[in-house]
Amino acid sequence: MIKALLISSLVLVLVLLTVQFKDKGKGKVEPLRAEKQQFLIGAAANYKRLASDKEYRNILSKEFNVMTVENDLKFINVHPAKDRYNFYNADKLIEFAKEHNIKVRGHTLVWHGGLPQWLKEGNYTKTEMEQILKQHIQKVVGHYRGEIYAWDVVNEAFNNDGSLRDTIWLEAIGPDYIKKSFRWAHAADPNAVLFYNDYGIGAFNKKSDAVYKMLRELTNEGVPVHGVGFQMHTSIKQNIAFSDIENNMRRIHAIGLQVQITEFDVDTSGVDATLESKLSRQAEVYSRSLKTCINSNGTCTAFVIWGISDKYSWLGKEARPLMYDSNYIPKPAYYALKDILSQ
Ligand code: XIL
């Protein structure tokens, strides 16, 4: 009797151990967001997809702890007529984020793109344009005060040669539109983390130097700017200077600012190779980029991918730039990030 009891409890212990071991070995069970608790891993999202696609909702809620509002807060969508704002889509996205304990990045307040006709063709005076921008920022940031934790306040204000891009904002307000926008945003939500966001500014070049110089001036003047967003729309064709990116993060840290990777994706189109080798090269770019962010000693505080599934990428179907394929099967890039996050 005692012998039988001993044997059966031994069997039970063995079974329990195997089950546990199996779970550990799989490594797939834990979502990305659970791997490194303090680190923000995110995706850009649109309400249209959230409302219509269950798989999209499922992955967004499980895998990520930060989301960027991809299009629903752009001027043209949130402020479609001079006296009308439309917060519906962004409200819904943010409600979802709250339910699932996902932080929200607002994108974007001041940009040359995504502008409505009424603004582009309104023939407003310079004073009117400044009023319009000020009110827009106050209204939108104020509406989400305490709910949107970080804002891309100014987006893509520089040309590649380091000069300021010719936009309706520069035209109407002059170069000071940048610092004014940060001040207006800060007044509307003093707790929001405010970013300057751009592409092609991760490594060293004329543009990233100009951005750095401007931010150094702004911080010296006490303008409320807190971080720099490196968009990082990349491609497997590119040769990315990761050590430059590391050093650039360092100089940004030295002026008291943080960095976030804000719009990461890796285009795989235009290369003559098998899909398998393209996806493995893509995974490598994902992995090295996340590693650069994580190894920055706290300077780089978030890694946000510009979408979830290749089904909806802004680059089209051929590019396959994201972590999930069109059927929501995780690609090598997903496992590459998981590896880095679990280290
Ligand atoms: C893109 C969106 O992904 C598209 O869906 C939209 O049609 C156009 O804008 N830099 C930015 C983003 O800052 O806002 C852009 O997003 C991609 C490039």
Strand arrangement, major sheet: 1-2-3-4-5-6-8-9
- Residue stretches low in confidence (pLDDT < 50, at least 5 long) are 19-27
Average of the residue pLDDT scores: 94
Q: Beta-strand level of the residues, as a percent range?
A: 15-25%
So what's the overall shape? Answer: globular
Q: Count every helix, treating DSSP H or I runs of 4 or more residues as helices.
A: 14
Number of strands: 9
The small-molecule ligands in this entry are: (3S,4R)-3-hydroxy-2-oxopiperidin-4-yl beta-D-xylopyranoside
Q: Report how far the terminal alpha carbons are from each other.
A: 48 Å
| Sheet with the most strands, sense and barrel status | 8 strands, parallel, barrel
Write up this protein:
By secondary structure, the protein is of the alpha/beta class. 46% of the residues lie in helices and 15% in strands. An 8-stranded parallel β-barrel has the order 1-2-3-4-5-6-8-9, surrounded by 5 helices. The chain starts with a helix and ends with a helix. The chain binds (3S,4R)-3-hydroxy-2-oxopiperidin-4-yl beta-D-xylopyranoside. (3S,4R)-3-hydroxy-2-oxopiperidin-4-yl beta-D-xylopyranoside binds at residues 70-71, 155, 231, 263, 314.
State the main characteristics:
single chain, 343 residues, alpha/beta, 46% helix, binds (3S,4R)-3-hydroxy-2-oxopiperidin-4-yl beta-D-xylopyranoside
